[in-house]
Design the sequence.
């Protein structure tokens, strides 16, 4: 069983793109054409999201298993090294991968991610995660649609992007979402290890998300070499400020690939 992956052509190195919770490949729709000017995007959809299947085995959702999957994809694409980029929930996965396999990552980009930079248990205890997961699985799609980060609540997306995200969210797997809470979220924070990062790193920070600002500061303190580009926008900054995001990533890729 494999997650859904779409490898795009372009000019330059491979760039793995991993979306956040309740999103899909539509997360990167505003960016793909711009990114193709300097890289070859590889879009992955998380378990239970978009076109990806929903494994029954909880171990499939573990961050170390995601790291193995990422590296298997890299090998299949015959990329000796590549860039990685994670959005929100997906950032914890790509940042863990960069910590685990720094020799295979030219550089990493990430956007606002409460789950990656909050302290361990900062978003809840394991027991609380299990209770939330049970409630989501039992509540099904209506329970998922009530989550505050469901795309139906987005106010700064283009109509085309929002509609695509809503179409994908309508087919989301409640079990896959619940298993992500059970199997991924408890280990998704990397803040305690972030200072060990060995690869060039860029945070594209949507500064309107007030809740994330202290976490961005904590990331800078933990990793003094962290590059930060601040853009006017919120949590999904790659959508809300697509041109600025693409420009920041392009400059970062050009510098890191030298």
Sequence:
């Amino acid at each position: 069983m494999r997650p859904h992956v779409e490898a795009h052509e372009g000019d330059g190195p491979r760039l793995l793109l991993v979306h956040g919770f309740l999103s899909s490949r539509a997360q990167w729709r505003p960016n793909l054409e711009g990114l193709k000017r300097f890289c070859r995007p590889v879009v992955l959809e998380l378990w239970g999201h978009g076109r990806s299947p929903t494994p029954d085995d909880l171990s499939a959702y573990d961050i170390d298993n995601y790291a193995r999957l990422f590296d298997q994809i890299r090998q299949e694409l015959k990329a000796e090294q590549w860039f990685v980029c994670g959005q929100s929930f997906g950032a914890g996965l790509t940042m863990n991968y960069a910590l685990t396999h720094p020799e295979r990552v030219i550089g990493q980009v990430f956007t606002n991610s409460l789950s990656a930079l909050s302290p361990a248990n900062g978003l809840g205890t394991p027991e609380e995660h299990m209770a939330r997961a049970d409630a989501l699985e039992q509540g099904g799609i209506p329970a998922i649609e009530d989550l505050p980060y469901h795309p139906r609540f987005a106010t700064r997306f283009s109509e085309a992007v929002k509609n695509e995200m809503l179409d994908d969210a309508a087919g989301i797997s409640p079990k896959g979402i619940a298993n992500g809470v059970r199997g991924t979220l408890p280990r998704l924070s990397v803040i305690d290890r972030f200072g060990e990062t060995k690869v060039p790193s860029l945070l594209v920070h949507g500064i309107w998300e007030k809740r994330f600002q202290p976490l961005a500061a904590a990331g800078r303190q933990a990793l003094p070499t962290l590059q930060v580009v601040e853009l006017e926008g919120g949590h999904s900054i790659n959508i809300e400020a697509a041109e600025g995001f693409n420009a920041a990533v392009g400059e970062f890729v050009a510098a890191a690939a030298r």
